[in-house]
Amino acid sequence: MSELSLTGKVYKIFETTKISDSFEKRDFVIETEDQYPQKVKFELTQSKCSLIDDLKEGENITVHFNIRGREWENTQKGEMVYFVSLNAWRIEKGQTNTLETDVPFPTADTVVPAETDSAADDLPF
């Protein structure tokens, strides 16, 4: 499977949950900045739980993750249930300012003067 990653803003960070004596996990949610933003939940396990200790809600990050799938038999209903989790293994901080800072603002030198030709004002309405 190819490397998967998703970029967005930290939306919610949950506390670490101890599942058993030897297993703990921590969930967090990022919100994508697509035309139709999505809130996507990831999980960190074991020693990776500390990867989000220094993050704050609203920060831009890129999450590198694996998709994990598992099956579970619901014996009460006699059916198989399938779960999918997004297991994060690396997080990269991004810029917190989403403005285009590389684009220079126009100055008096770059402003193009308006046309003074009277034909430009000759509109049909």
What does the model show?
The chain is mainly β and 125 residues long. It is 0% helix and 48% strand. It has one domain (4-96): OB fold (Dihydrolipoamide Acetyltransferase, E2P) (Beta Barrel), CATH 2.40.50. It is built from no helices and six strands. Strands 1, 2, 3, 4, 5 and 6 form a six-stranded antiparallel β-sheet that branches. β2 and β3 form a beta hairpin. The model is unreliable at 96-105 (pLDDT under 50).
Could you give the distance between the termini? 61 Å
- Strand pairing plus helix content: what structural class? mainly beta
CATH architecture: Beta Barrel
Percent range for β-strand residues: over 45%
Please outline the major beta sheet. 6 strands, antiparallel
Elements, N to C (H/E): EEEEEE
How many helices? Answer: 0
The fold-level CATH name is OB fold (Dihydrolipoamide Acetyltransferase, E2P)
For this entry, give a set of tags.
about 50% strand, mainly beta, OB fold (Dihydrolipoamide Acetyltransferase, E2P), about 120 residues, single chain
